[in-house]
Structures are given as structure tokens and as C-alpha cells.
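Progress against Task 2.4 (sequence-to-structure conversion) is shown through the following example record, which the project officer requested during the mid-term review.
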Amino acid sequence: REDIEMSRYTMYALVLGTAVALAVTGGADAACMSQKDNDDFFAGLAGAPIPLADSCCQMDVCAIPCPAAHPKPASGFGVGIGIMIAFFCAIGLGAFYFVGGKAENFFVAGRSLPLLVVTLTLASQSIDSNALLGNADLSYKYHFYDGAVLPIGLGLSLILNGIFLAHKVNEELVLTLPDIYGKKYGKVVEICTSICTCCSFLCLLAGNLVGMSVILAYIFDISETGAVFLSGIICLAYTACGGLFSVAYTDVVQAAIGMIGCLSVAYWLIDNAEKEAPPLSIGMPKAPGYTTVTTATVANQDIGFYVYPDNATAAMYDGVDCEFTAGAKCYNTAKWCPSNNNCVADNAAYPIGDKRIFENQMTDPAALTPFPNAIFFNWATIFVLGFGNLAALDFQARCMAAKTPLQARIGCILGGLLTFFVGIPFAYLGAITRYYYGPDSKYAEFDADTCSEILDLPTCAAWKPDPQAFIKLLTTEPPAFLGGWGLLGIVAASMSTSDGAILALGTVFSHNVVRHFVEFDDKKLLMISRIATVPFAFIAMIIASAYKSDHPSGATGYLLIVAFDIVLAGCIVPLFAAFYWPFGKPSASAALFAVVGGTLLRVILEFSLPKDGWLLLPFAKKEFYDYGVPVKDEGTLYPNWFDVPDDEKWTPSSCPQTRFEDYTGVDSLASPLFSLVLFLLVSGIEKMKGSPLLDFGEWSEPYNKKINEDTAAAVTKA
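C-alpha cells generated for the chain above:
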């Protein structure tokens, strides 16, 4: 292999550092090591409990400098973003005028959206904070495809929708996606799918509120929880007023401003960043005054600790003959670090380098050795997003709002291509972010109480990625105007999907659930829809506040996958059968069994399959082991790639590690397959029986809702 790097679902990826402690003065009351004998050992070396005052665990245990403080963003970023958010809200609130008290205008914008608006509003729903910020974050923490699978799956979904469903959905002349289930299968199936899609969109909305709040919290220096609620209230206000008119036309403006900004900053960074990925590590000098333990020999300070992995790397950095490691080259302290204030060094996190993309990451489980590769989950993510999104309320609402079936179809395909074009470049920014904020940067933070055999690290084995790293990159490296435009683009993307999700939740709950139990006219439907958006929005805010950016599951990207995993399990098979069942009218009983059975299996597997939270199948390879907790071994302090006497090097096999075991993704694929089997089985039984397997009377009968009878036909006929 030329390079190594990390996979998305390992335990906070790459590291490196020494395992020797330095004596520093001061005192603290929090332990660095979970095992008391370990903590006492390093505290003894330091002469006081660790972490010491004005120090940190990684310094006191591993001699890795504490993370440097990052400068706060300039006030201009906040001013610009605040003005544009107000502008977006003004457009959305102004759309209240166009609704005119008609549900059809509120739900599907009077079925009047032209191709350009359909394309941009579909792309805006797809290119959300998950496809941008979540994508960049995951590719920074792990690697390229761990982030890129998000826009790939979302774009694929729009293309599949354009090929198979968009034109048929538009031709149905309905107001919401569950209307189609009611029209084909009856009220029971309609209500069940409405509940599933509402649960799905609560997670989608929460993920986008997390994305927007991360930026607002950093730029305005407020708590992330406060920023979550601020984001939700902003989107709720104009969505509840104008419905899909608000959403559609703010989406157009947000797309025009946001997508151009995101593309501009992405390609600027790709073309102008100092490095496209972290380079080969240069290494570090010896600790001042280092003396061998066994012979009490004062080491040569002109020769560093770091032993280069090969002659080519040594030649690149003018390595010198090592003092204790025969035939090897070491860090040239005399050249690179003649004094403390004139020192070029790093944490040796990339002994053989990193690169932007590993082409075999999606085909080889060992592509990221010595780190595990979440290859199965990445493929499962593409499948979940590609097919689960076909039951996305916001996607299908825009197809219903298109002027013609053909425009709905073309708009989906163009929106999918636009998602690829805007979203995938953000995955390339992960490696650039790692260069500036990765484990070899001055901002690097490590968990001192971790070890790894395959990494040959007795302590400080786990790097802790900065959840704000990508935002910090945008506020420091590009020109200020371009970085601010990129941040605004992500905020716009979050708003465009959040408002669509809020609208979908309110309309589906009022129109497809409440209306079956309480009779009301069209005008009351609008009022109830607007009222319903409020509790749903606040529920999503609560979910988002629990899954903030530092959540171990990845917050934005994780919630996106959960959202469409929910509807993939039971709703997709009946949706395709509604339009493509080849044996006459599809069975309402089969659809009900498919929806309920697939969803129940998904819930059962969620709690019955082994899941350790790291989303990695237990491949029989050393890289598929979790980090361990160091075991005290006073005679073996140092990694084997340190230039110290052999009897001072640790024994890697002494690190107690357990294999990753997480079958997430298996449940995502098994549930829709089970749903399909149930649909086919029940349909076959009913054909042999000659009567429905389940009969709920009129609730099992397909039916049509009548909304705006006086104008609907005329408005939609064209």
C-alpha cells in the first residue's frame, strides 16, 4: 500500500504519539487513565496527579502537545448569515398571500411549478446539510466514501424516482404521498404509512436542524442546543404560513445562492489548499533530557525518537542514523528542531501518508488497513437512501406540484444529477480538513487511555476528531467572502430541507390521519395543518438536541440514514405494487401485511442483532478490533517505532482488545425483503382463496379524497 487512512466507523480513527510521560508542575482532580495503577504510574513520573494544571492527559501521558486553541470566527460571518436568513424568511412569509385559503395551494402549490422550480426544489431537498456538512464531516473523520455515500444515495434516489414513480405520482392528482396508499389500498394502509413517514421525517428534520445549528452555534458563539431550537423556530415560522409556495420559492433562492456558494468554496479548496491530504509524517524529537531506563545513558538529543518506516521517507526529511535502532534512519532534530521556538515536528500519525481517496474502499474490506473499513454499511447506506427516499414525503410533494408528469420526471433526474455534482466534491474536502485539523495538526486531541496492537501504540491510540473542524476550515483557509458563502450554502441547504420536512409532517398528520376521525372542511384543514407543524417541529428539535454534532453516531448523517431506513422497511414494496402490480388491482391485505410486517421485523432486528455502535461487521482481521485500555507494564513504555533500547519497548499483544461486532445494515436489507415476501405470499393466498385475507369494511376499500372540487380538475388538467 502507498498510504493508509481510516474508515468511517472505527472508533475515532487514526493516531500516534509517544508513551513516555514528562514531569510538569501543578495539580488536578480528574484522572487520565481508567485503571488506577496506570494513573498512579504516570502521576508518579509527573510528580503530581494528572492532568496537571495548564496541561492535558495527552501531554502528561504521551508527551503530545495539548490541542492549540482555535481563533474565533470574524464577526462578519455572523452578520452575513443573519442577513441572508432574514431574507429567506421574508420570501417564505410573503408566500402566505398565494395560498388563498386553499389546501391544494398549501399542499402542492396549486400544481403549478415549472420545470426549473421543480428541479431546483428537488435538488434543494436532496442537497441538505447531510449531503454537505454531514458528508464533509464523515469523510474528515474517516475517509472519502464514508461521506460520499450520502450524496450518492440521495442522487440515485431522485434518478430512480424519475424513472419509475414521479410521472405516476403526478398523474394521481393527490395532495400527499399517503393519499396514494389510500387510493390504492384503503384507509388502514394509508394511516399506517402516514405514521411511518411521519416518524421518518422527524429524524430527517432533526438531522438538518443539527447541521444548521452547528454553524449558528459556532458563528454566533451560542450553545448548540439553543441553536437547534433557533433553527427550528426560524424554519417553522415561514413554512406554517405559506406551505409549499413558501417552501418551493425559498428553495429556488436557497438553491441559487447556496449551491453556487458550496460549489465555489469546494472547488477553491480542492484547487488551492496547501495539501490535498496529510503528507508523510516528519516525526518528533526526543523528550528533553531523555535518559535510558536500564543503563541511565543520556541519549543523543540531535537524533529524534521517530524511526522512519522506509529509506524514501527518511531521504525526504534528511533522516539521520538512529542511535539505538540499527540500520534505520531517525528524525533529524538538529535540522528540524534546533530549539523549542524553531521546531518542525508532528505526532507521526501518518508514517506512510494519506490520500484523498482509496479507489478500492468500496470493494475491499482491507482497503483501509490498519483501520477497519465499513464497506458493508456503506453499501447498505446507498441502498437505504436510494430506495428508502422513494417514500420521501418532500420528494413526492414536489412531483405532485409539477405542472405535468413529464416535468416531474425530468425534474427528478436533473435534481439527482445536480446532487451528484454539488455533493460529491464535499467528500474530497475530508482529506483537506484532516490536513489542517487531523491527528498530525496542532489541534489534534487524543484519548490517552487507549492502546492498539495493530497501530503499535501503548497509549494515546485513539484520535478524537473535532466536530467543528470543517466549519473552522471554511472560516480560516478560503478568502473570507468565499468561506462565508460556503457556510451560507450549508445553512440554506439545511433550511430548504427542514422547511419541506416541517410542511410534510403537518400536512400528512392533518390530512391523512386526523381527517379520518374528525370531519372538517378545506379551510379548517389548512388551520389544522399549520397547527400540527408546531408540535412536530418541537419534537424534532428535542431529537436534534440529543444528537448534537459530537454524538458518537455522527448526528447529521446518522439521522438521515435512520429516517429512510424506517420507510424502506415496509412502505416501498406497496408503493411499487400500487403502480406496477401485473395481476390487476393490488391487494389491500397484502399491502397491510407488507407495511406492518416489514416495519415490525425492522424493530425486532434493531434490538436482537448484535450491535456495538461502530457499524462494522466482525471480519476476521486484526484491524477489526476496538481500541483497548492500556495495561500497566513499567518496563515497556514506548512504541516499537521509537528509537530507544529494545527492553524499553512495549509488547503490543499486551493491549486487551475486543472485535467489533455490529450487524447494522443487515436489518436494513432484510426488512424490505421480508415485506416483499409477505406481499407476494398474501396476494397468492387471496388469489387461491378468492376473497380478502383481512376485511375492515370500508376502511379496506380504495377511495379518493375530494379537495377543492371546484378548482382541482381545472388547475391540474394541463
